[in-house]
Amino acid sequence: MIPSDRPRADVVVVGAGIAGLTAAALLAKQGLQVELLEAHRQSGGCAGTFRRGPYVFDVGATQVAGLEEGGAGHPAGIHARLFRHLGVDPPVAVPLDPGCVVDLGDGRPPVSLWRDPARWRQERLRQFPGSGRFWALCDAVHRANWAFASQDPVLPPRSWWDLGQLLGAVGPGTLASGLLTTATVADLLRISGCAADGRLRLFLDLQLKLYSQEPADRTAALYGATVLAMVQAPLGLWHLEGSMQSLSDGLEQALAQQGGRLRLRHRVDRLEPPARTGGHWQITGRRLTARPGDSGAPEADFTLAAGEVMVTLPPQTLPALLRDALPAGYRRRLQSLHEPSGALVFYGAVERHKLPPGCPSHLQLAATDPGSLFVSVSQEGDGRAPAGRATVIASVFTPARPWFGMDEAAYQGRKRQAMAAIQAGLEPLLGVGPADWLHGELATPRGFAGWTGRPMGYVGGLGQHPSRFGPFGLASRSPLAGLWLCGDAIHPGEGTAGVSLSALMACRQLLARRGVDLRP
To answer: How many other C-beta atoms are found inside a 10 Å radius of the C-beta of residue 326?
Structure first.
């Protein structure tokens, strides 16, 4: 039994990344008493930021989708919808145009992903002659996807209410695109007669890996078709002024206005279900005096009681949090999950005049050592670097597990080698030599594990393979009553827009049990 003097909440949300902040603010707006617990000293998670002297670096995410206002028959993006519903101003942002410039490393001009749809059609047909049928098929699938998603479906359904929400979102286009539920983007290439275009395939592999953690032959067609359309109006990718932290700041403001409470440096260690505690969820953990990964001793233990719990952490954390309360079948499902990737991320700063004239904000380079790079460059006056200077963030996927278990000397040596390889890859792309860096440091999966608390420092969710996407993915409604999941491992997947949609879906399910129809 929980002592009567323990703090009591309607809902405890675990993890104050974008999904947790969104869920907590939405629930608080409906009048629920909400406690949001975060182990780090700041919110944001993988979309957080840090400072090094005069420079501000985005930790992981460097661009945002879902800020379009909508109109003329086009729905608003998920962030625009939610900020409007929560009654706070969205962060100041500018659309990226081009959204990305992709250098395929073949000596030919790079591919620019223009925001204007007509200009992008011209670009892709010039770069990939004969690919029109493929892009037309992707466009048709994307339109059906977007009409479906705008109705806020619940996937995968785990109750009659869930099923009703899913069926209510289905239209004629959805039924047609549903035939591709088990297909991959590579299947779309074959259907359209473009499978032999190796240059197009390389481009698709690079772009899809960014968002789905999978190449074209392992990315669900229904997911990939929309990812490939995200740059173009009326949608778009956006560059936030100041830093990515401004997205979290707005959600924190909304949570506070609605009476919710954010508790930083509160690491959750255990969740005990109502059957074991006398009728309520019990959440226990530690208040930390230092950020996760540091050597500071815990200040004190804490215990909270709640009617329901929403977990935004990777599902791989659930066995440790629930221990023997986790149903055996669900434990086996979690143990069988695909292992996500880790990332190596270089954070650097240079004099802006060292960069190529008109350097775009986002670039991608096909490379073998250390791997294909995704590069983000700050814009002049965006608050990330002093005037005349720029921050440069370059990331590459890497298996996470090998970065653990080595001694410190070996670890530091491997870091130096990886950073040198990334800098060498940036030299031909940006024209920046080793002596030009005003600042440089590297984050590894080991560092990300300390920053985010994610197992093995995993980045992103489970990977958008057809076997893990949509109806075949993990459900937000867990097998334990009153335990909900959201975040990048839950439909529709990664990115700040994806995790916000997952938070909205889980909140709609939770509130429906209380007789509330949430329709932001």
So the answer is: 20
Average pLDDT over residues 319-329: 96
In the beta sheet, which residues pair with residue 101? 112, 363
Q: Each residue of 50-59: b (16+ CB within 10 Å) or e?
A: beeeebbbbb
* Contact (Cβ atoms closer than 8 angstroms) between residue 259 and residue 87: no
Which of 285, 236, 245 has its CA nearest to residue 265?
285
Neighbours of 337 (CB within 10 A): 16
CATH 3.50.50.60, applies to 8-52+243-337+462-512: yes
User: Picking from 186-190, 305-309, 337-341, 363-367, which range would have the lowest pLDDT averaged per residue?
Assistant: 337-341
Residue type, 79: H
Query: Residue 457 in contact with residue 449, Cβ under 8 Å?
Result: yes
> Whose CA is closest to 79, among 92, 97, 62?
92
Residue 17 dihedral angles phi and psi, to the nearest 5°: -75, -165
428 in helix, strand or coil? helix
Name every residue whose Cβ is closer than 8 Å to that of residue 166 and which is 6 or more positions away in sequence.
Answer: 153, 154, 155, 157
pLDDT digits (tens, 9 = 90+) for 399-421: 999 999 999 999 999 999 999 99
Tokens of 7: 């703090």
Question: Where does 323-361 have alpha helices with state H?
Answer: 328-335
Tokens of residue 279, six digits: 């009728």
Q: What is the 3-state secondary structure (H, E, C) of 86-130?
A: HCCCCCCEEECCCCCEEECCCCCCCEECCCCHHHHHHHHHHHCCC
Residues in CB range of 294: below 8 A, 6 or more apart: 450
What is the sign of the dihedral through the CA atoms of 125, 127, 133 and 138? negative
Compute how many other C-beta atoms are within 10 angstroms of the C-beta atom of residue 66: 24
Decide: 379 and 392 in contact? Cβ < 8 Å.
no
**In the predicted structure, residue 1 carries a pLDDT above the cut 60:** no
Q: Which of 453, 456, 323, 519 is nearest to 20 (CA)?
A: 453
The pair of structure tokens assigned to 58 is: 């985005």
7 — pLDDT class (breaks 50, 70, 90): low
How do the domains of the chain map onto residue ranges? 8-52+243-337+462-512, 97-235, 342-457
Query: What single-letter amino acid sits at 502?
Result: S
Q: Which helix (H) or strand (E) holds 484?
A: strand 483-485
